[in-house]
Structure formats: structure tokens, C-alpha cells
Design brief:
The protein is 41% helix and 11% strand. It has 496 residues and is an alpha/beta fold.
Length: 496
């Protein structure tokens, strides 16, 4: 590997400063500590780095022993997308549940409590909230990560979330600019395209970002989506028209612009990782998120050297790199100061997440049903998880219902024969069918058809976007699959 500059060279330090890499393991690797000393200003944590909150606090303390004002980032949306509670499920409901309640003060309080928990663990940059308007109900990657399909609702809750999170001293990173809600492709896999006119974009997608900017969001994350009305050639992350002309110029945003994960196929496929990073910086991005998949020292060094080479060849102006690095360091200083100011804040309600999850429940009594007062059978119809959510985090109502109704059992079913298999496994017991985005999965709809034809007294719990008509004797929409959403649903089942 060719190294173009010494570690104390300004150009090299700036190139390291704009990277937000991840790493493997639950303690700080030597190579990460070494690169922090050479200019790395941000380290990102993922589910693989988390065992417990105490362990994360010890890990971030190790990292900060190298640099006091280090940015430690995490993708902690709560709800379905949780890293801090990856092994247990989140103690806070996600955006869709908060949007269903539509109480901005509750959203603010939940975000503040989540931010306080992150701060206690030593995390000071959260890649959240999602400000995407879920205009396409078949969206495979946003869904319950959005506050909803109404632009005004999404805007007011995005602003409330930003205010709550940042009042805890943790920087919010509003995403995915210019809006990922009207897509039917997951940018982890390919380049999504939004074919709507510019007026629709401005009146729908951009409003929540305007609200976030007015609320003072310290960071904005770009989307790897092609929006021909704004730029017919390059996806948002690589588009100067979108990042510089629109976000910086027209919307007047002056904070940090962070890319979505650069190893996602929407960028790394057509452009290549190193080339994509250079193009993103040139377009106006300030910080490069990488590490969800590639989390080794070699990747960091390749990207550092690619940026140095691009400056030396004239492809990337040195001033652009210096400006980006300065914005990263400016945010690091803000978090250090904000953390000191909020460290002795007032006590928060430890049950606020469960309170919010309970308020988000929508219970519809479709037909006559006896109470569930004995051991039941929970049939979880499980779709494949998207990459943002991952498959490590438990979900459903089985664990909580078994605690409330000892003897309850759970089975997971998928595919064409899921309904018949669930009926056989239930063996006559009362059935609680748990689904996630029934409207997006024909096999899941068919499974419910079979199950309810045989057992119309079954209860249905929808833990995704409740787009399908309620059915079952009782239908419970949780608006998300966080642990507290499952607990709230289990309580409602037992309460009758």
C-alpha cells in the first residue's frame, strides 16, 4: 500500500478527520487508538460492538483516553433499528409509534431520554432521526422508521426529536436527505429512484428537513437515491446540486453533512468505494460513514490515501477537504461543551418508552372474543429483515406474553405453508398471530387467511405499518416492533 504523507501532515490528518469508520470487537483495537492519534476524529459503533450499556461506556472511555473530544457515533433510531439494545430490543418505541400518538412533546421527551442514555454510554452523535415521509407504503427499508405518511406530522415530530436529542448533549443527524420515503428499492442493495416532479419534492420530502434545520440539527445524512428532478445523473450523496446548491445554498444549512454508509451497493456498486468517497466530498459531504460492513484498518487507510491522492491530483480541492475536516472538529467541540452543560440535568422518567408504546397502540375489536386468560400460542409470521434493522434483535410478543401468561409458547413461520404449520403447532390453543407489514407480503396475507378461517377467535398483532384492514377477533397495531411495543401489546391482550 502506498502512503502519500506522513502522519503529522495536515492533508493526511484532514483525510482521517472526515472518516467515520467502524471496527470489530467490544474493546478499542490498537489500530483505532493509533489512528485517533493521527487525526481520526470520529469512531462509529454498531451492534457487533455492544454487549451491555456498561461495556459500551467502558469502550468509549478507552477511545476518549486518546482524544477528549472524539465523536462517537451510533445508528440508534430506537424502535426497530437499535444498536444499543441490539440483543434485547429497544426500551423506546420508534418513529412510527410516536407519529401515531402525534404528541410532539412526548416525542421530545422520548428523544431526550434516549439521548441521555446514549450520553451515559459515551455516545455523542446519533445518526437519527429519519425525516423521511413514508409516501410509498411498499417501501422496503423505511416503513416504521418514518413518523408517517403526512408531511406536516413528519416535520413537527422531526423537529421535536432533534430538540429532545440535542438537549441531552447528543448531536442529532437527520436523515436521509433529500428524502427516502417514496422508494421501492433498498439502497443497501441498489440505487433507488424517485420519479416525482420538483414541486412535489419541495412540498413533501423537503419540509421535514427544513423543520430539522430550523430546530438546529447539528448533522444531516445524505441518501444514496437518484432524484432526476434535482439531479438526473448522480445520487444524492454524490450530487453537488443536492448537497451544496440545495442543502447548503437554498435551505441555508451550515452544519455537518454525513453520508449514509458508503459500502452500500447503491454507491460501492456503480462507483466503487474509494471513488465514491472522493465524489461525495467533492459534492459537499463533510463526513464519510463506513464500517457497517467493512470495519478493518485497511479500509480506513485506503480511503485516507484515496482522499490524499485526489487532492494532489487536483480532483478534490484542498480547501474542500479542509472545510469538511473543520466542520467535523467543530461538531466535536460542540458535543464536548454540550455534554458538560447537560451532565447534571434533571431526572427523566425511566418508563417514558413504555408509556409512549402504550399510547401508540391501536386496538380494534373486529368480532366477539373471549378474554385470553390462559396459556396461548404465539404464531410469529416473520419476514426477512432488511439490513438497516438486521436480524440480531428479537421482536414480537411471545416473551412478554409468556411472562404474563405462563405456559404460553411461540413459533416462527414463513413461506407458503406458514398458516397450516401454525395451526398444527398451536394444537388447539388460543392463537395470537404476529405479523410485520402484512400488506407487503402475499405469503403472510395467505397465512392469516388460512389461520383465521380455521380459528376466527385468533388475535392479530401487526408490528409493522398497519396498512392492511384490521382482522381477527381483536387486532392490535403497535406501529413498531421495539421490545416495549411487544410489552404494551401483551398487556393489552391479557387485559382483554
Amino acid at each position: 500500500m502506498t502512503v502519500f504523507a506522513t502522519v503529522d501532515d495536515t492533508l493526511t490528518r484532514d483525510s482521517l478527520a472526515v472518516l467515520q469508520p467502524g471496527f470489530d470487537g467490544t474493546t478499542a483495537p490498537d489500530w483505532v487508538r493509533r489512528r485517533i492519534g493521527e487525526g481520526l476524529a470520529t469512531v462509529a459503533l454498531f451492534g457487533r460492538n455492544v454487549v451491555s450499556h456498561g461495556q459500551v461506556a467502558a469502550l468509549t472511555a478507552q477511545l476518549r483516553a486518546e482524544q477528549d473530544d472524539l465523536l462517537v457515533a451510533i445508528d440508534e433510531e430506537s424502535g426497530d433499528v437499535t444498536r444499543l439494545d441490539v440483543r434485547t430490543g429497544s426500551s423506546f418505541p420508534g418513529n412510527h409509534a410516536l407519529g401515531a400518538v402525534d404528541d410532539p412533546d412526548l416525542t421530545r421527551r422520548v428523544a431526550k431520554a434516549l439521548g441521555r442514555r446514549l450520553a451515559e454510554c459515551g455516545v455523542n452523535l446519533n445518526w437519527a432521526p429519519s425525516a423521511d415521509v413514508n409516501a410509498n407504503p411498499d417501501n422496503p427499508v423505511i416503513g416504521v422508521r418514518s413518523f408517517g405518511a403526512d408531511t406536516g406530522l413528519v416535520a413537527r415530530h422531526t423537529a421535536a426529536y432533534v430538540q429532545g436529542m440535542q438537549s441531552s448533549g447528543v448531536a442529532a443527524c437527520t436523515k436521509h436527505f433529500p428524502g427516502h420515503g417514496d422508494t421501492n428499492v433498498d439502497s443497501h442493495d441498489a440505487v433507488p429512484r424517485i420519479d416525482v416532479d420538483e414541486d412535489t419534492l419541495r412540498g413533501r420530502e423537503l419540509m421535514p428537513f427544513r423543520a430539522a434545520i430550523e430546530a438546529g440539527t447539528r448533522a444531516v445524512m445524505s441518501a444514496h437515491i437518484l432524484v432526476p428532478a434535482l439531479d438526473p445523473e448522480r445520487p444524492g450523496t454524490l450530487s453537488r446540486r443536492i448537497l451544496t446548491d440545495l442543502l447548503r445554498g437554498e435551505l441555508g444549512y451550515g452544519g455537518l453533512i454525513v453520508t449514509d454508509g458508503m459500502e452500500m451497493r447503491a454507491i460501492s456498486g456503480p462507483y466503487g468505494l474509494e471513488r465514491g468517497v472522493v465524489l461525495a466530498l467533492a459534492a459537499g459531504a463533510d463526513a464519510i460513514c463506513v464500517g457497517g460492513g467493512l470495519c478493518d484498518e485497511g479500509t480506513v487507510l485506503k480511503l485516507r490515501d484515496a482522499l490524499v491522492a485526489a487532492v494532489r491530483s487536483g480532483e478534490l480541492p484542498e480547501e474542500r477537504l479542509a472545510d469538511a475536516a473543520a466542520r467535523v472538529r467543530q461538531l466535536a467541540r460542540w458535543t464536548a461543551e454540550a455534554g458538560r452543560v447537560t451532565a447534571t440535568g434533571s431526572a427523566l422518567d425511566p418508563e417514558i418508552g413504555l408509556v409512549a408504546a402504550r399510547r401508540a397502540l391501536a386496538v380494534t375489536r373486529v368480532g366477539p372474543a373471549a378474554p385470553v386468560d390462559g396459556p396461548a400460542y404465539v404464531a410469529a409470521f416473520s419476514p426477512a429483515a432488511n439490513i438497516a434493522v438486521g436480524d440480531q434483535t428479537p421482536w414480537g410478543v411471545g416473551v412478554e406474553l409468556e411472562r404474563l401468561l405462563p405456559g404460553t409458547a411461540t413459533g416462527s413461520f414463513t413461506g407458503a405453508d406458514a398458516g397450516e404449520e401454525a395451526l398444527r403447532a398451536a394444537d388447539g390453543r388460543r392463537i395470537v398471530a404476529v405479523v410485520r407489514d402484512e400488506h407487503r407480503h402475499p405469503w403472510m396475507r395467505s397465512a392469516l387467511d388460512v389461520l383465521l378461517a380455521a380459528r376466527p377467535d385468533s388475535l392479530v398483532v401487526e408490528m409493522g405499518v398497519p396498512q392492511s384492514p384490521p382482522r381477527g377477533a381483536v387486532h392490535i397495531a403497535t406501529h413498531g416492533a421495539a421490545r416495549v411495543c411487544g410489552l404494551a401489546a401483551a398487556e393489552a391482550i391479557v387485559a382483554g
